[in-house]
Design brief:
With 137 residues, the protein is mainly α. 49% of the residues lie in helices and 8% in strands.
């Protein structure tokens, strides 16, 4: 498996390539690897591969507050020419939120990296909300 535009300092390991294959085949997935096994790189590779394959248009990688910045850095280090959007706290203040969402909608990002909390602030239509609640019930 090759990764167009990849300029990272580490050659992807077989378990990372396998993870990318699984994510592309299933259109997502859960990664349960030990600390230090290269999950951040795997997520970057998978998001980039899916975009290059035309499976997705704007990959969003979600992370915890503690590691979202590291995820964005890993993506930028792996694909230095990629357009990566990583919001700052000020982007989610009530007065800046709409402008930030417009930035997501109106630009062609290679990846958007956000925290779970930030993603939760994206307003959903009533239909989507009802679908999510129905699935939860």
């Amino acid at each position: 498996m090759t990764f167009e535009g990849y300029a990272g300092k580490h050659t992807p390991m077989q378990h990372q390539k396998d993870g990318v294959w699984m994510i592309t085949q299933q259109m997502g997935g859960i990664l349960d690897h030990i600390v230090g096994s290269g999950k951040s790189l795997l997520m970057s590779l998978a998001a980039n591969k899916m975009k290059k394959m035309g499976l997705i248009k704007k990959p969003i990688i979600l992370g915890l507050k503690a590691n979202a910045e590291d995820l964005a850095t890993a993506y930028k280090d792996s694909f230095p020419l990629a357009k990566v959007l990583y919001p700052q706290a000020k982007d989610f203040t009530p007065e800046n939120r709409k402008a930030f969402f417009a930035k997501i909608a109106n630009n062609d990002w290679d990846a958007i990296v956000m925290t779970h909390d930030q993603f939760g602030m994206i307003e959903q239509s009533k239909d989507i909300q009802q679908e999510i609640i129905g699935q939860e019930i």
